[in-house]
Amino acid sequence: MKKIEERSDYELVQAYARGEREVFSTLLARHQQRVYCYIMSLVKEKSVADDIFQDTFIKVVNTLRSGTYHDEGKFIQWVMRIAHNLAVDYFRKNQKLKVVRSNDEVDVFDMVDNFEESIESNIIKDQTQKDIRFLIKQLPEEQRRVLIMRHYADMSFKEIADKTGVSINTALGRMRYALINMRKLAEENSLALSM
Fold first, then answer.
1. Are 153 and 143 in contact (CB under 8 A)?
2. Does the pLDDT of residue 8 top 80, yes or no?
3. What's the CATH architecture for 1-106?
4. Contacts 24+ apart (CB under 8 A), 157-166
5. Region class of 93: left (phi > 0), else alpha (psi between -120 and 50), else beta
6. Which keywords label this protein (predicted)?
7. What whole-number distance in Å separates Cα of residue 111 and Cα of residue 102?
8. Contact 101/93 with Cβ under 8 angstroms?
């Protein structure tokens, strides 16, 4: 039988659902840094990030215990979605409080500015994602496959090497060339991406 640390997220989630509560600490240790850094990048405030991080994992535990979690993809993507939604909820509440505190006068311009900024940032984010998908499609198959496994399936280079039947160094090399080629393609297509 595999050691707890060697088991996949899927196996750990199944074990937790069967009542093996001790496996949760492994799931938490495996993903806490990535989740916390993501929350911190959104809220930029440690105390708020701490609260959202805690609420995220309380929600994860409650969902797993209730048996309503359906493994339709990667566990980490589901956790990140919860964290993202809680951060959005925080901003909504925070924005409402800001408006209420303005001495009974609603600061319409403040609300419009915030609304326009969020629309603009969503448009930029959507366009960037479309541009990235376009660039990924232009990559050679081997590079594209490694890039997708690394960034979208969250696989380690060892897992990628095992899955593709190549050495870890070859997987690393393909990833490196994928990023180099994406930068080159971005320049050729006049796309501004931060990579």
1. no
2. yes
3. Orthogonal Bundle (1.10)
4. none
5. alpha
6. DNA-binding, Sigma factor, Transcription, Transcription regulation
7. 12
8. no
Q: How confident is the model at residue 172 (pLDDT cuts 50, 70, 90)?
A: very high
Q: Which amino acid is at 170?
A: T
Asked if 58 and 83 count as a contact pair (C-beta separation under 8 A), the reply is no
What span, in angstroms and rounded, lies between the C-alpha atoms of 4 and 11?
9
What pTM value is reported for the model? 0.50
Domain locations in the chain as residue ranges: 1-106, 107-195
> What number of residues does the chain have?
195
The dotted CATH code for 107-195 is 1.10.10.10
pLDDT for the residue numbered 165? 93
pLDDT of residue 123: 64
Sign of CA dihedral 126, 128, 129, 130: positive
The residue among 31, 58, 32, 53 whose CA lies nearest residue 42 is 53
Are the CB atoms for 88 and 40 separated by under 8 Å? no
Q: Where are the beta strands (DSSP E) in the chain?
A: none
User: From CA 180, how far away is CA 44, in angstroms rounded?
Assistant: 30
